[in-house]
Amino acid sequence: MPQDHIVRAYDEELKYLSRRVAAMGGQAERLVDRAVTALVKSDMRLAAEVIKDDAVLDDAQRDIDEKAIVLIARRQPLADDLREIIGAIRISADLERVGDLGKNLAKRVAPVSEVRQPVSLFRGLQGLSELALTQLKDVLDIYATRAIGRIALTRDRDGEIDAMYTSLFRELLTYMMEDPRNISPCTHLLFCAKNIERIGDHATNIVETIHYMVTGEVMPPEREKTDTSHKVVAEVPARS
Amino acid sequence: METPAGKGDSGIAGWLADRMPANGLMFVVAIVAIVLAAVLGTPAGVVVGVFLVAAAAIVPTSRRREKAQIAARALEKTSLGGLSPQNLAEAVGDPLVIFDRQGATVHANAAARKAFGDLPAGMSLLLKFRAPELQDLIQSVLTGQAGEKAVDYVERVPLERVYRVVGASVGEQTGLFLLTFRDQSEARRVDRMRADFIANASHELRTPLASISGFIETLRGPARNDAKARDQFLQIMQDQTARMARLIDDLLSLSRLEMKALPPAGRPVDLQAVVEAVLDALTPLARESGVEVKRDFGHERMQVAGDRDELFQVFENLLENACKYGQSGGRLIVSIRPSASVPGEAEVAVTDFGPGIPAEHIPRITERFYRVDVETSRSRKGTGLGLAIVKHILTRHHSRLSIRSEPGKGATFTAHLPTVRRRN
Known about the structure:
The complex is a heterodimer.
Chain A: H1 8-41, H2 44-75, H3 79-107, H4 109-112, H5 119-145, H6 151-178, H7 183-215
Chain B: H1 5-8, H2 11-40, H3 43-77, H4 85-91, E1 96-100, E2 105-108, H5 110-116, H6 125-128, H7 132-142, E3 148-155, E4 161-169, E5 176-183, H8 185-220, H9 227-259, E6 268-270, H10 271-289, E7 292-297, E8 303-305, H11 308-325, E9 331-338, E10 345-352, H12 374-379, H13 386-396, E11 400-406, E12 410-420
Parallel strand pairs in B: 7-9
Antiparallel strand pairs in B: 1-2, 1-5, 3-4, 4-5, 6-8, 8-12, 9-10, 10-12, 11-12
């Protein structure tokens, strides 16, 4: 957190910004959680609510942007303060995207629930979303405490999310090959899995922003990606 | 606020006696007004008199409230033999957080630190508790809109927890506020457990049941007089019933774990001692599988906070799996060492040299009933729940499981556990 300033209103404005980002984070977490619940339980009403609630995140981002611009214009911040403000702008943009992805999940509830899907598929999807939500929660906790020592853990989890996504990708492919009637719902589920995986990516972006805010340095380069889904191919059984 | 004085009163006499001394004058004036009005015959006088009687009855109530407030303030200042607010907060079993007008933490008790991680003084609660309903609660407590307000707060990850959160201001004009959390996860878990158990049990027991009933049908029909087939079928039926028994054991064990709250901080558990105990218990299985176990324990004895029996189950399941599925490798390595990347973390790794696990299955093998190869799993007496139990216990201990495998070369299962510093 930035040091105290002579002008107390300035401190208050900076604090407001970080509180607003945290509140927005909480709303994004809740939105994704409810979207996944709607998907797993085929709950159309909950899905409709989620779609409506995304507007809250859009408003929050606009508010943070405006406040940040006013702060820069009026206080001409330097160093820590400037990074704090730029960080808030970036994080709110990522959170807004998380909200959009959640909304997109909710939109797919209807086409997915047309056909009853195997339980194991939803277990996989739930596992993936648990990982992504834990990632988001950890990242926002790091934002609250600025404990960048914990960043290594979130990087590990990013790898887990990618691996899980690849595994689900493969499973969905096999269902589609088994029965062409599965193609439509499974394609939607594939997008759902991709959206959840993207939420994890946004969480990772936020971690990088926090690292920059605290240290003023760009995070060291990432290890190689473990998302190998682009290499997965369906083996078509030979016709006899 | 109810005053203690109000309780002793009964009947009109008590009611009057209570009010008379305080407002005797007003009563006298009122009665005089009524008498005068009656004598002079003006109806307005009667109205004024009645009004004054009513006022005499009401005014003392507010005066009593004032008195009670003075008494309460005096009570606040009473010291209870050097009892500090911090001591008191620490002694409360439920999580409790005291914060100031800016929403910054002033004090979080031990239960709160255990439930939500470190909450250093000065940290903004609005940054930590981001759930929309908690944000609203904290805001409304800070603005003093509601004297006391309660909401339900559900935390989904990493473990599902449900709290009834009450926000209130502390005393009068102290500028301090309070959040208390009552854990209600238990009730929620019982509900969930019941639903899950029925769904899982009915689904997983159906296959062995169908197979048993099929064999019974065959034994009563076509294979009635075939002694050789009968023996073979009975053997299969016995295997299936044994499998069902194991399945029920594992399901119960998992359900029981899910029911329990977080493990008590309790006494530190020595990792090496637990692993040794597991190795002793599994010696027959290792010998039977023809697997040689190599110990690779560092010099440093490491301890973790948690439940010894649950940790025993973790390592038992991991080692049993290694013996069962890594049998072809002929050897296992069990190692305990401090983590190289995360300080204050211990790693217990079980490495086998069997066929390994294909990469696409690794992220999912901790899911319930997920099997890499159904046939192999069944033949090795697996229920599909062992790793789900491992993962659940580790999550409860703020720990995690990582799995590395190269097909054809074997697999390594590593439990990452936070250590506690030895106190001596």
